[in-house]
Amino acid sequence: MTATPAGMTYADYLHLPELLSVQHPLSSLHDEMLFIVIHQTKELWLKQMLHEVGLAIGLIGGDRFAEAYKALARVSRIQSVMTLSWDVLATLTPVDYSRFRDVLGSSSGFQSAQFRELEFRLGVRHPSFLEHYPQGSEEHQRLVSAFEAPSLWDVADAARQRAGAPDWLSVYRDADRWFELYQLAEKLVDMDDALAGWRHKHVLTVERIIGGKTGTGGSAGVAYLQSTLTKRAFPELWELRTQL
């Protein structure tokens, strides 16, 4: 079977008719389309990040570090793109957004199952988030699977133990000896750094558009988002820096 079947078009390959037919503004207002496209795009990038993190977990489990670095670097680049997308959303003024905000009902980015799955896959596991999805639903099942499976941090730390390094501080103190592990740790910090930047820009964008209002999903809005700014996927790798 060939990779490029005869007669295959760009639109066929990407399923563009289907993809471009799922933007359905509920108001007649021009700016709602931007809001939909930004968030649908975010979900597509989250899908790709989960794809890359899943690959990296398998590669690290097999001590195939160089191949894993590529997947992890790709995740960091995707995070940069997602962070920049907040600047596009920020062109939506408070007045623009308030005109169609009511059509969102109780929907909220807080409900993104893929974002929670990504956190679980990285190693940020808060079982309370499982309660936001009905038992038996596809979202709940995927999150339970991610919650129970070895995370990126789990397999990275297991690789460190297999190599014989006593702890991550030792890896940093003798980076030449443990260079592959040292590089792996820095790739993880790159991702965590990018995720923190995404969260920070998210807070600024939401504050710029809705101020201190309650979120559409019932969350505390900006106040809740601000509470996540200190969250780290790999806190051990941040804490050891003080000890070097």
From TrEMBL:
Record keywords, A-Z: Dioxygenase, Heme, Iron, Metal-binding, Oxidoreductase, Tryptophan catabolism
Pfam families: Trp_dioxygenase
Residues at which substrate binds: F35, I36, V37, I38, H39, Y97, R101, T216
Family membership: Belongs to the tryptophan 2,3-dioxygenase family.
Amino-acid positions noted as binding heme in the UniProt annotation, renumbered to this chain: H202
Function: Heme-dependent dioxygenase that catalyzes the oxidative cleavage of the L-tryptophan (L-Trp) pyrrole ring and converts L-tryptophan to N-formyl-L-kynurenine. Catalyzes the oxidative cleavage of the indole moiety.
Cofactor note: Binds 1 heme group per subunit.
Cofactor(s) in the UniProt record: heme
Keyword Oxidoreductase appears in the UniProt entry: yes
Pathway noted in the entry: Amino-acid degradation; L-tryptophan degradation via kynurenine pathway; L-kynurenine from L-tryptophan: step 1/2
E.C. no: 1.13.11.11
PANTHER family in the cross-refs: TRYPTOPHAN 2,3-DIOXYGENASE (PTHR10138)
Lineage start: Bacteria, Pseudomonadati, Pseudomonadota, Alphaproteobacteria, Sphingomonadales
Keyword Heme: yes
Enzymatic reactions: L-tryptophan + O2 = N-formyl-L-kynurenine
Protein name: Tryptophan 2,3-dioxygenase
Gene name of the record: kynA
Subunit comment: Homotetramer.
